[in-house]
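can u pls check wat happens w/ 6-O-phosphono-beta-D-fructofuranose
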Amino acid sequence: MTTSSTPAPFPDYGFQQVLSQRAARDRAGSVEQISRDPDTRRLSLLSAAGWQLDASRHLLQPDSLQSLLEFAHASGVLDEREALFDGSTLNTTEDRPVLHTLLRSNNSHKAVASEFAAVQSTLARMDTWVTGIHSGDHPGYSGQRITDIVNIGIGGSDLGPRMVVEALKPYHRAECRVHFCANVDPDDLHSLLPGLSPETTLFIICSKTLRTEETLYNARRARQWLLDAGVPQSALYKHFLAVSTNLQAAAEFGIPADNILPMWDWVGGRYSLWSAIGWSIAFAIGMDGFRELLAGAREMDAHFRDAPAEQNMPLRLSLLEIWYVNFLHAQVHAVIPYYQHLTRLPAFLQQLSMESNGKRVNHLGESVSYATAPVLWGDVGTNGQHSFHQLLHQGTLLCPVDFIFVTDTGSSVDPEGKRRLLANGLSQARALMVGRNEADSRASLVARGIAADKAAALAPHLVIPGNRPCSTLSTPVLSPAALGALLALYEHKTFFSGRFWQINSFDQWGVELGKAMGAEIYAALNGQIASFDPSTDALIESGDA
Ligand code: F6P
């Protein structure tokens, strides 16, 4: 039995030995050979909700994949999927169900019928507001149409909506522009305000709890900006909407009930873009576009729920994560979209993966002896090629990559540019796998006119070992539905990994301590006598308080 001084072992369901042996073998194998194996190809091309996954370029032989799939069956995680739909208390430490799938559902489990009704009526209210703002029926205090929406929120109340609004730029409506302000650093809001008019700007205060320092501070500053510009106190309500579970705090801020949409405890912040927290998305792309986003996620939900293990895309991504993290000891994972408008995707996925699964104790509160979430990072291609791809090709870390491609180059306004982009992405995935040996490196130098002895000395620096794993995810066009499906795919991958690790993917206690300390240090910066540690004290001393 595990005691508090003995960390819990990896929950292996009897597969530890076989998986460890295969991992040692596959680590020494060839990604290219594995990828050419007909069994690998048969087993590694998956499709779901408009997305194709090619998971063939990995340090994972077909028999290892079979063992991983057996491990998944033995673990019971497939049976646990239903808990994301039926209102079970999955978030045990906060005693809450986890129902973000309900936000995009067409119907509900009977146990959560009232929650479903609340979602539907909230969607209808969102719709009314979006239509009213777009048509000019809800003008600002002076009667002018609202032209700019500013989402004030942070974490899940920012990252998802901001990323989606950016990703769906080609679908933006002409009626209004959408902006985001998250940081308590006043430079964030102050860099937005000069481009805005108080008469035509609407702020959405987006906060599940409405207790978040950054959001409350920025909301107060926004209100002051409006007042300073002459907006009468009595008309402030024309410039504020709010989304929160804390309806009372929104009302206390002075926002009338009609302007407040609810959120619910059963939606985690990082899973909330599908709720009214995504209001800014609906303003940007219209309510039809928002519903299309939900529909894409819904299609992925159905795949997650119904597809057999062998074809289940979120399960495959999760098993690859378990393979690399727990058997090949990778500590990092890169996501590289070859699509400029997905520039915020890695930041969104960081919260999704690292806040969900960056945990050190299991469900029972026992510390774990195995690794959990890796560091997730990335940026759009081709930009990263001129930066961190050096490490991917020649560094010493094992870093599996997810490449994301949008393949229908012909449908773009600049097919040539899109073909160049795709060629770059495909070549990076291939170069990671095939690399370049010393003889070829030397020959390429000689071909450039470099003397043979110098070429021999330089060649080791040009060697690219290759054999580095990646997955590719591709879709023809990044429509709202395709984006919704992609995000739901990563949500469900995160769910599976959390279940394999037997951790609670839906709480985030780790972020609380720094917040509490921040309040004490803020008081000290304002002159209150307090002593912390020499470094903190010295930095407080150097402050301007
Ligand atoms: O500090 C972390 C966190 O609680 C996230 O989980 C959440 O998305 C973010 O803060 C913002 O919280 P809220 O929406 O309540 O302002």
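The pocket of 6-O-phosphono-beta-D-fructofuranose is lined by residues 153-157, 207-209, 212, 215, 269-270, 355, 508, 511 (CB under 6 Å).
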